[in-house]
Amino acid sequence: MDAQVEVYTSAWSVTHDEKNFHNPYEFIPSRWLDPLSRDIKHASQPFSLGPRGCLGRKYVFLQPELAWSLQALTSLGCCQFRKR
Ligand code: HEM
Q1: pLDDT tens string 49-61
Q2: 62 CB less than 6 Å from ligand 1?
Q3: Which of 16, 39, 52, 70 is most buried, judging by how many CB atoms fall within 10 Å of its CB?
């Protein structure tokens, strides 16, 4: 194969391959938190990679922190929403 050829892999196929994830057809959210897991987690790239990868990726990771910070500030009385 020529070095200039781009190769694309189906994200679904990669994440449903037992070589990468155990019980790949089961919904096991804890697989992402288990430090002893032998799953190859970087096989999952939900935001894609490379120059055409997701531009919103950093925002997506930041957004929950912004929500939690706002909730904490509100509960401490540090900021309030105006009632209309
Ligand atoms: C969990 C949420 C998200 C996921 C899983 C996701 C995933 C992706 C993926 C896989 C692509 C590449 C699509 C392709 O190959 O054609 C992409 C592209 C893109 N995403 Fe996201 N995205 C998310 C949220 C967002 C958000 C919140 C924004 C904007 C604030 C955003 C902006 C973009 C843009 C502008 C592109 C096009 C990049 C380009 O073609 O150069 N995404 N996203």
Answers
A1: 888 899 999 888 8
A2: no
A3: 39
